[in-house]
Structure formats: C-alpha cells, structure tokens
Amino acid sequence: MAILKSPFAHLDLERFPVQQNSPLQAFNAADEYLLQRLHELRLPKGSHVLVLNDSFGALALSLCQQYRVSSCSDSFLAQQGLTNNAHSNQLTKALEEIKRASRTCELEGSFDAVLIQIPKTLALLQDQLAGLQKLLNADTLVLAGAMIKHLPRAAGELLEQYIGPVQASLAQKKARLLQAQVAGLAEQPFPVSSTYAVPEFDLKLVNHPGIYSQDKLDVGTRLLLQHVPAGLGDQRVADLGCGNGVLALACAQLNPQAQLVLVDESHAAVRSARDNWQAAFGQRDVEIFAGDGLRTLPPASLDLVLCNPPFHQQQAMNDFLALRMFRQAHRTLKPGGELLVVGNRHLGYHAKLRRWFGKVEQLAAHPKFVVLRAIKTEKTGQTPAEKS
Ligand SMILES: C[S@@+](CC[C@H](N)C(=O)[O-])C[C@H]1O[C@@H](n2cnc3c(N)ncnc32)[C@H](O)[C@@H]1O
C-alpha cells in the first residue's frame, strides 16, 4: 500500500487487482495536484463534487469527508478498487453515500466542481464531456488532470469545445492540470459510436466510445477468429475480456446451441457487446456482464474460453491482467476444457500458460501474433497456486 497525503486526508491506497511487489501505485501526481488545487480554491464544505475516471478511489475517498461526492468511471476494476480502499480506510459509510450519489452514472442535477482524470482514450473523454454539459452551471469549477506524457493537446481542445476556455497549469511532478471555465456554450453532440463490418461472419459491429480497437477489428482478434471451433453442441463458452463481443458472436454463429458468457471490465464494452448480441441474435439466451473476468463463475463450469487478453491497465503496460485471466480460465474450465488465446509473440504466453495448463500448443503464427490452445489436462480440476 502507498499513502496518498493531501490537504483533505491521508489514505492508504491499493490498486485493484492487487499485484504483489509491483512498483505501480494506486494514485499519481495528477491526483495529488488536483487535490492540492481544489484545496487552494476553497470550495465550501458540503459542495457537490463529481469525480470522473478516479483510479481506485484516490480522489473520491480524499474528498468524501468534506463534500458530497459522486464518482463515475468506465472501469469495473477501478470501481472495485474504490470499494476496497473505502473499507480499508474506514470509509465504508462514505462509500455508501458515494454509491448512492453515483448510481448508474446517469447523473442529474448540477455540480459545484468536477474533477477529471483524463482517460486513456479521447473518445471516452469526449463522451463524458458531452454528458457533463447539462450538469454544469456558470460557477461550476472544472479541473482536469493527467501525467504530461498521457496528456495530448486534443484533450484541452475537447475541454474548450464542450466546456469553455481552458487554462493550463505549470507542470508539477510531471503532471499538469487544465482548468476549464464554463462558458454556457451551445450543447455539443455526443461522439458517434463507430461501426465496422466483419464480412467473414456477416457481422456489423457497433463500438461505443472508449472501447478497445474502436474503429477496426484488431489484427490479433482476426487471427483468433479463424480458430473458433464449430461442432460444440450445447457447450458453455466464455468470451473473456469480450470488448464488442466479436469472438462470442462468431462462436455463437458457428454453434447455434452453445451457451455464451461474455464479460468485460469496461462498461462501454459491455454495452457494445449487448447491442451487438441483440442485433445478431435477438432474444437468444446469453450472459453479458461487467466484472473482473471469470472471478464470480463457479469452478469447472466452462468447456471453452476465448481470450484476446489486455496488455495494459489504464496507462500502465504489463501482462499481470493477462496472466490473471489465464489462471481464472484454468479454474473455471472443466477438466479437458480449452483456452484459446491470441497474444503478441514477444510476450511469451506459451511458456506462461504452462504454469497452469497441462498441454499448450501453437495453432497459428503471424509475424506479430500467435494463437495458442491451452488444455486443462489435470483430472483433479484444481488450479495450481500462483508461482510468480
Ligand atoms: C485486447 S482487448 C480484447 C477485446 C475483444 N475481445 C477483441 O478481441 O476485440 C482486452 C479486453 O479485456 C478487458 N479487460 C481487461 N481486464 C479485464 C478484467 N479483469 N476482466 C474483464 N475484462 C477485462 C478490456 O476492457 C478489453 O476490452
């Protein structure tokens, strides 16, 4: 755990999922700068503050004892981090208030201040700013922050387009703030959700702002699609980290009796997958949910897992989430069940999958990617303990 010290609170914060011995922190210098600036601006106690894209509760939990805080994020993992950190910092009661004030993020009313951690994808920022317009009044304080290396010029341009004139701060510990003055602009449109076709499966897919590979089919996904099996009968298949659901949709098309489970930690991805499923299969039964991978599924309940795993969490690149998914897949597969994975060649997933799976084979290779099949050969069905 690392301690976030601000004029509002001292908090012990952890990322979610917790990664032992990792140098990654649950907050960054942009969080510290946002809190410091808000304190300097002397927002009256009891004001209503909206936090967007908080990582693991750094902002919301710092502010919740002085202000009424709503917190919205596209990320289920970030929300889970907020919950865990609230409990470990004895802020459980405040968490209930935050959750009540935020509910589904379909917010109403008006806010005295909005704090934004600028997200990785500008399409998501644009979508959030479009939704924000009706929640502001002339005096609302709008402060956005990011580490400079993750702050494109276009973020400031979007703030100007949707909110009003922007003033950039000096850099502090490699972070910068953008303060936007609400200018009462004519309401600007929401960004359009993109669509692209996958002719091999006669699919036209909608992609809501902010999801992975929003404008075109990922090259790795295209390769994995060629290996989605037919002839599964009524087997139970998960699309782990489903994005717009393309792998599950292809599998469901090839296997009309199969039972599909789709999960992603991004709410925008889950909305996209639901819309795409509905368009392709109407009322056909399916489970689609926002969650932490297969964590809530019973052990030995799946026959097949399809996965194009993530290689970063928010701005941080690493294979921790992918390896966690492989372990979850092993736990939830029946003995004899299979995990089909596509990954960047250089990530060495072949060797890593062997930590859990009795048999791992390469099905296809491409200059950049490999498709691997990992088979759960163990008769006990138990998942070995983490070795890393
Ligand atoms: C490389 S993308 C693949 C998306 C889609 N399957 C495709 O092939 O286009 C990985 C996906 O995993 C999701 N993800 C990351 N961590 C997750 C977790 N712990 N649980 C569920 N989904 C997660 C990301 O939001 C992202 O949509």
Radius of gyration: 22 Å
CATH-level-2 architecture of the largest domain: 3-Layer(aba) Sandwich
- Total strands: the figure is 19
Cα separation of the termini: 19 Å
What is the 3D shape?
globular
CATH class identity of the largest domain: Alpha Beta
Strand content: 25-35%
CATH superfamily of the largest domain: Vaccinia Virus protein VP39
Low-confidence stretches: none
Query: Approximately how much helix is present in the residues?
Result: 25-40%
Major sheet: arrangement of strands? 13-12-11-14-17-19-18
Overall average residue pLDDT: 94
- CATH-assigned fold name of the largest domain: Rossmann fold
What is the number of helical segments per DSSP (H or I, 4+ residues)? 11
| Overall number of structural domains | 2
By helix and strand content, what is the structural category? alpha/beta
What ligand molecules are bound, each kind once? Answer: S-adenosylmethionine
**Element-level helix/strand string:** EEHEHEHHEHEHEEEEHEHEHEEEEHEHEE
Give a quick account of the main beta sheet: strands, pairing sense, barrel closure: 7 strands, mixed
